[in-house]
Amino acid sequence: MKVKNICCIGAGYVGGPTMAVIAKHCPDIQVNVVDINKERIERWNDNDFTNLPIYEPGLEEIIKKCRGKNLHFSTEMPQKIKDADLIFISVNTPTKTKGVGAGQAIDLKYVEESSRQIAKHANKFTIVVEKSTLPVKTAQTIKEILNASTNNKQDQKKEVSFSVLSNPEFLAEGSAISDLENPDRILIGGDDDKSIKALVDIYAHWVSKNKVLTTDLWSSELSKLIANAFLAQRISSINTISALCEATGAHIKDVALAVGMDKRIGKYFLNSGPGFGGSCFKKDISNLVYISNHYNLFEVANYWQKVLDINTWQQRRFINLIINKMFGTISSKKIAILGFSFKANTNDTRESPAIYICKKLIEEGAILNIYDPKVNFQQMSKDLENNDSEMNNDIKWRYSEEVYDTFINADAAIFLTEWDEFQNLNWQKIKKAMRQPAFIFDTRSIVNIKEVKESNLKIWQVGYGY
Ligand code: UDX
Ligand code: UDX
């Protein structure tokens, strides 16, 4: 079976870049990305490429090359489902906010709705691929929904049937295009060899076959969850050590370097910081805790819960430390916030440590000036809004358009995201702009410490005991 037409439901951070790279490498395949969000689709189709809904280095070039040729963005879900030989489900999978499993289990309502749409509109044999990270055994749910509909429609559409595959995406935001272009591995889970081969053939356009792993559906689903849990666990581990370094006078970067050079450990994911953010880690570990408890594996659940606990502990620790260093109060003090996205090179703020930290600083009475090279004012407003009518957000924080303006009259500056431009700042200029004595809090350990010290500013860096 050869796939000639792909539909992807969900034009988000995963669906958009993934389909762009498939379209780039497979000119013989028509790729249709559909989404229920009309505004998002309009932005994908905008001729002003700076208005694309997602910022990823290298994405704009691919959209320019492929859009309108074999890459299309629309809201016409029924038609694109009908046309497709293979459909990726790439919708968001938030944590449940109410009901059974609230705060831990994943809400599958969008996946379920997408499956129902596929069941309703498909009119031939169709391969359905889960791309979203999902709880183990979700493929079974998708299968049941699809099969129920084919049973109902047996008289009218004898030729309709489905094969369900799991093909989790491992891309990280900020490096999505290079991760997709050169993946560590492609993982495909399923029980129908012909469908698996059809999907392998798509990736074979640019990925060597020895990087493609195939397994059963459940192992594939679980592998994705565990890969994220292991990555997050490394961050919590190094963050506990950052506190120990500060207490004992060691230097976290030297420790991480020495530890990471052991090839059994490896050098990646050993940067201490304000804790992990992003749409996946917290959600996936919460889900791992939930399923472990479900299977009465309480020790397993407690172990992974600690990874989450350390993440919030690190953020709380920073807030207390900032207040202590600023003579016990930040009320009415101006604080510059540098970076709002959850990591560099993305405009995504989901679960960004900056949200929690900024809200807490505002609660303590500080007035914030927030700068981020890619996050816009509307997004910050949405993230910082609260329901407390006493609190006037307009006064509590301001959006800064320019990096140096952010420091004007500030008593402190807190670096929260590791954007490149923060690594080469003119510290003499900053010193003049700030109210003295001024404090610099570098939660990512990225600023040029020598230059900051030369300009006589007080500096604290994560994981550095002086
Ligand atoms: C990611 C991943 O797919 C998931 O694995 C991860 O765990 C969290 O979310 P992402 O692409 O980052 O998805 O999410 P998002 O940027 O929110 O995009 C999802 C898109 O699906 C949205 O544009 C939304 O409008 C769309 N959607 C959602 C539909 O088109 N139909 C629906 O029924 C629900
Ligand atoms: C992650 C996984 O890396 C990816 O494989 C999966 O598909 C989705 O989830 P993402 O969340 O986009 O990707 O970014 P990632 O680079 O993993 O960073 C996650 C968070 O951890 C960020 O807040 C980042 O700043 C933080 N982090 C990362 C650290 O604090 N220290 C590190 O050493 C690495």
Brief rundown of the structure:
This protein is an alpha/beta fold and 466 residues long. It folds into two domains: 5-215, 3-Layer(aba) Sandwich (Rossmann fold), CATH 3.40.50; 216-466, Rossmann fold, CATH 3.40.50.720.
Summarize the structure in words:
The protein has 466 residues and is α/β, with parallel strands linked by helices. The protein has two domains: 5-215, Rossmann fold (3-Layer(aba) Sandwich); 216-466, Rossmann fold, CATH 3.40.50.720. It contains 17 helices and 14 strands. It has helices at residues 15-25, 38-44, 59-66, 77-83, 109-121, 138-152, 176-181, 193-203, 217-248, 252-260, 281-294, 298-325, 353-363, 377-384, 393-396, 427-433, 449-454, and strands spanning 5-9, 30-34, 71-74, 86-89, 126-130, 162-166, 186-189, 212-215, 334-338, 367-371, 397-399, 412-415, 439-442, 458-461. The strands form three sheets. The chain has a six-stranded parallel beta sheet, sandwiched between helices. Strands 11-10-9-12-13-14 form a six-stranded parallel beta sheet. Strands 7-8 form a two-stranded parallel sheet. Strand 12, helix 16 (427-433) and strand 13 (439-442) form a beta-alpha-beta unit. Helix 5 runs parallel beside helix 6 (138-152) and helix 9 (217-248) packs parallel to helix 12 (298-325). It is globular, with a radius of gyration of 24 Å. The relative contact order is 0.09. The model is unreliable at 387-391 (pLDDT under 50). One uridine-5'-diphosphate-xylopyranose binds at residues 169-173, 228, 231, 235, 269-271, 273, 276-278, 280-281, 342-343.
